[in-house]
Amino acid sequence: MVFLAEVLRGARTDSLRLFWLLALAFAPLRAALSTPQRETARPPETSSLTAVQARAYAEVLKMRPAAARAQLKDASAGTLLVLDAAAITELLVTQDAGLYEATVAGQNKRLAQLEKTLERGALPEYARAEIRLHQAAAQVVFGHEVQGAWSLRQAYQQMAAVVQRYPAYLPARKTLGLMQFFIGSLPEGYRWFLKLLGLPGSVEGGLSNLRAAARQPNDFQPEARILLALVEETYYKKPDEGLQLIHQLHQQQPDNLLYAYLLVSLHKKQHHTEAALAAYRARPTGAGYVALPYLRHMAADLLLYQGEYAASRRENELFLQQYKGQHYRKDAWFKLYLAAWLSGDAPAAERYRRQIDAGGRTVVEEDTYAQRFVEGRLPLNPLLTRARLQIDGGYYREALATLAGFRSTAATPLRDRLEDPYRRARAWHLLGRPDSARLLYARTIALAGNAPYYFAPQAALQLGYLYQLEGQRNTARVYFRKALSYPKHEYKNSTDTKAKLALKELE
Predict the structure, then answer these.
(1) How much of the chain is helix, strand and coil, in % rounded to 5?
(2) Repeats (TPR): which ranges (predicted)?
(3) 3-state secondary structure 408-460
(4) Among residues 256, 477, 490, 496, which one has the fewest Cβ atoms lying within 10 Å of its Cβ?
(5) Which residue has better confidence, 143 or 282?
């Protein structure tokens, strides 16, 4: 589903994110966006949801699964697909381990029903592959990796077979394309495992399939457009199209929690703090919606960027109270630490710091960063930390003013001596001053050597983007390869993936 694919963009490229992205790339968004169709017989290759199923799926997309279930009475392939959409949405949005067994049992039951059905055509086969993919996600996320790997293999093979049997059925190309892209873009450290399972990836083939579904008329075209926009925004530096699309969808359906979430997320990613907070505060709420505590975690970040430390703490404390999962907990405690520390509340800051090490997992990169902070025992510099948050929030000139107060001496830790020019480079880069940014990125690389911090790898990646934009392809290649060369740092998976995809663009 698009919502969870977008949530996991924030987790960067790791095994958990891969499986979630693959498993949740099925949602037929046209159900929410297009006029319901008449319930008439259609050729197998163009079979689709009925009008009732489309209305029910529109409720799933709005994060109202109970309302969706209330409309579904039969046991056809389309109904089974929508019911599974509702179940996997609740499981992975809430991260409630108590729902896991019932969810997997329900998936097995629906798959058995699809095996027995007399329905033929693209939709039943598509539904079978999608539900198997959802099962792979559920299994991996809740610790059943071997079972999940086998389910992923089955889903991939089944979806490839749908594409082969029904080459004009574009929704299957959408899902297969997304799987191909993410498998093909994985860092080498993960690809060996998928090769053992016989899951070939192809960035070019995946984008081709995804673009076909996004650009050619089909029932699921709106979904494919969103997924393509998210991929291009994350990996190819094309933010405007995605933000324009989500604005349009949100205006059409202001009661859609998915679109509200995407609007917050994309504005946050583009450093539009005020716009992101406005979207957060205007989000639809009510008893019918699935609880989405991750939105509070995002809001806490936005308030932290603004220096609203008390409000940020309230949002993250509510997130930790309401969220049932194990991911982003360390990150939330770390952000609580920052809010207390920067506001001068030393006792609270120490309580929060101890909690980082007490629970949660280190699968997503944000949690890994928080854990390394605890284990490293190297105090943060308050000026550099404030500047980082200001840059993340889009307050670039304020960040430069903050950095003006930083003075490096012989006793200054190497990490801080690297962070200073890197933060200045980011501020000038985002202010549209590439010459100043290039100089400071280069200084960061020169100072770093092989230090195990992300500043030099990220500086190399950003220099690659700058030279690529200016048409200096050979120089861009040098810096993308430089970004790949660093053996160990906090954001290696995401940095390597972006550098690898950028090099493919330059081939």
Answers:
(1) 70, 0, 30
(2) 457-490
(3) CCCCCCHHHHHHHHHHHHHHHHHCCCHHHHHHHHHHHHHHHCCCCCCHHHHHH
(4) 477
(5) 282
Domain boundary among 281, 312, 343: 281
In a 13 Å sphere around the CA of 269, the CA atoms on its Cβ side amount to 23
Q: What is the pLDDT of residue 276?
A: 98
Residues 152 and 92 grouped into a single domain: yes
The residue ranking higher by pLDDT, 347 or 193, is: 347
- What contacts 70, CB < 8 A, 6 or more positions away? none
Q: What is the CATH number of the domain that holds 220?
A: 1.25.40
Domain encompassing residue 344: 294-376
Q: How far apart are CA 148 and CA 157, in angstroms?
A: 14
CA distances from 258 to 183, 261, 294, 469, 506 (A): 25, 5, 12, 33, 35
Contact between 481 and 2 (Cβ < 8 Å)? no
> What is the average pLDDT across 56-70?
93
Eight-state DSSP code of residue 379: P
Segment 210-234 shows an average pLDDT of 85
| 401 lies in the same domain as 346 | no
Q: From CA 350, how far away is CA 214, in angstroms rounded?
A: 49
Range scoring the smallest mean pLDDT among 115-124, 150-159, 197-206, 291-300: 197-206
- Of 122, 127, 132, give the one whose Cα is nearest residue 22: 132
Residue 286 inside a domain? The answer is no
Clarify whether residues 63 and 138 are in a common domain.
Answer: yes
Number of compact structural domains in the chain: 3
> Does residue 287 lie in a domain region?
no
Determine the pLDDT at residue 189: 62
Q: Where are the alpha helices (DSSP H) in 9-121?
A: 15-23, 30-33, 51-61, 65-70, 77-94, 100-116
Does 181 lie in the same domain as 219? yes
Structure tokens at 10: 């924030």
Question: Which residue did the predictor score with more confidence, 199 or 284?
Answer: 284
150: enclosing H helix or E strand: helix 145-165
Q: Are residues 13 and 106 in the same domain?
A: yes
Question: Which helix H or strand E contains 402, and what residues bound it?
Answer: helix 396-403
pLDDT at 47: 65
The confidence score (pLDDT) of residue 187 equals 66
